[in-house]
Amino acid sequence: MTSHDDTAGRPPEPYDLIGVGIGPFNLSLAALADRAETVSALFLDARPEFRWHPGMLVDGARMQVPFLADLVTLVDPTNPWSFLNYLRDQQRLFPFYFGERFQLPRREYDHYCRWAADRLPNCRFGSPVTAVHWDAEERHYLVHAAGAVHRARNLVLGTGTEPVRPAAFAPLSRHPAVLHSADYLTRRRALDAARDVTVVGSGQSGAEVFLDLLRHRAGDGTRLRWLTRTRAIAPMEYSKLGLEQFTPDYTRYFHGLPADVRDALVPAQWQLHKAASAETLAEIHDHLYERTVGRPIDAEPVEILPGTAVTEAAQGPGGLELHCRHGDSGRRHLVRTDAVVLATGYRAVRPAALDPIADLIDWDEQGRYRVDLDHRVATRPELTGGLYVQNAELHTHGVGTPDLGLGAHRAAVILNAVAGKTLHPLPHRTAWTTFLPPSAPAFAPPAAPGPAPAPQPAVLPRPQEGTERAAASR
After folding, report:
1. Which H/E stretch holds residue 252?
2. Which pLDDT belongs to residue 18?
3. Can you tell me the distance from the alpha carbon of 173 to that of 342, in angstroms, rounded to the nearest whole number?
4. β-sheet bridge partners, residue 141
5. Which residues, 6+ apart, have CB-to-CB distance to 222 below 8 Å?
6. Which of 79-88, 280-289, 435-444 has the lowest mean pLDDT?
């Protein structure tokens, strides 16, 4: 592999790819690229070390995907950066085997990723990327990071997502008792003095925060409240066939749909990617059941209010005031509370480092990336270097975009595209479900009366062929 050290006084050879940000998805790409001898890669992150949602590593919280959804296994089970090899290195294979749990503790997944990030030679922390320029003459990117300029033929953005705070809570953006679930563990002590705590949002984070508060505030008289706009506290879809919407087959199908259909489909699929696990909801119910043994249900200071939206939030004379509206009845009411935890999700944002090349990107009508099936962003003709995104293409690739189960596959797709050849063979068919029906035959007028032809067996395209045609038509 070509050296990238400028030891001879000449400019170093450009990297084949530079990854900006080191979360699980770019870490997966780094792990796969580590064994690709024909691809040189460097991954940069502003943080001093790898951390994965540190504010939500609450005791007892588990992943929502099986352990096989690690950095590499679903693409290359022999890769040394697999979770099983991590267990071997940590001398935990037998305890894991006897544990018989498919889903990992969140804390263990975080530790596994840190194990890989600390050892991968192509990962560099403490290197914030401040600007990205395009050198049209040399046909490569100039990536400014930590006082150095790195050159790359391709760029992969893995800068992650940022917490979302609903507009209704804008007046309380600096209030010390209003925090996002992303900061829950690091700021949980700020809730200790509160005698009334409200959790907003019914996804996995909201359920885990509510359960953690139930456990830590039991018997101290604190009123706990759980509000959500969703009509019901519903579990995440976890049936075997339902989960096939997190396969490459479904991604190809979704990518081939018209943009307006995709935009309408994502929010309608909230139970695939925004709901809580049935196990966590069962733990909440079990905890409340045991707390009320020998007492009426309403003796416990707990409220669960689905179908309720917060329309306005402000500081009142006696604490925080949340103006709420019940969706079905239209009834409005006021909630007074001491503290709020916003479990209101995350969204992808464009990193400021892209500003120098923003005019060279072909944005869609809503200012989003246009992303092809290889996860490459559409750019103006003069920008010939590949620009790829990870977890910023929900609008083009569907609900599997943030799912860890598709992380290794997407990384392999990008690595194959950058290499210009198949470094990792990928399966042609991954789901039993046919998401797109076969194309209907063209209408033909009835034939003239005559002897009926002998019946012939219907010849239909394989289901995946129909999916690929739809995807290629965009």
Report:
1. helix 248-255
2. 98
3. 11
4. 134, 152
5. 194, 195, 196, 197, 213, 301
6. 435-444
Q: How far, in whole angstroms, is CA 43 from its chain's centroid? A: 19
How are beta strands 223-227 and 196-200 bridged, if at all?
A: parallel
Place of tokens 């050290």: 5
Instruction: Identify the top-confidence range among 11-20, 75-84, 430-439.
Output: 75-84
Residue type, 6: D
- Please list, in sequence order, all residues whose beta carbon lies within 8 angstroms of the beta carbon of residue 349, skipping any fewer than 6 positions away: 159, 161, 162
For the record, the structure tokens of 310 come out as: 């917060």
- Please, what is the average pLDDT of the chain? 91
Residue 415: HSE in the Cβ half-sphere, 13 Å Cα cutoff: 31
* pLDDT tens figures, 68-95: 999 999 999 999 999 999 999 999 999 9
- pTM (predicted TM-score): 0.89
Q: Which neighbouring-strand residues pair with 156?
A: 19, 388
Sign of the torsion angle spanned by Cα atoms 78, 80, 81, 82: positive
Question: Three-state SS string across 344-376, please?
Answer: CCEEECCCHHHHHHHHHECECCCCCECECCCCE
The HSE-up count of residue 436 (CA atoms within 13 Å, CB side) is 23
Q: Are 122 and 36 in contact (CB under 8 A)?
A: no
| Separation CA 208–CA 62 (nearest Å) | 10
Is residue 467 scored above 60 in pLDDT?
no
Residue type, 455: P
pLDDT at 1 over 90: no
Cα–Cα dist 312/193, whole Å: 24
Kindly state the tokens that stand for 247: 């396969």
Which two three-digit tokens encode residue 382? 């003069």
The answer to whether 155 touches 17, Cβ cutoff 8 Å, is yes
Nearest to 206 by CA among 333, 56, 102: 56
Cα separation of 392 and 448, whole Å?
56
User: What average pLDDT does this structure show over 448-474?
Assistant: 38
Is pLDDT above 50 for 7? Answer: no
Task: Give residue-wise pLDDT tens across range 367-401.
Answer: 999 999 999 999 999 999 999 999 999 999 999 99
319 membership: H or E segment, kind and range: strand 319-326
Q: 136 near 356, Cβ under 8 Å? A: no
Strands (E), 67-122: 103-105
Which tokens go with 238?
């976890």
Q: 35, 1 in Cβ contact below 8 A?
A: no
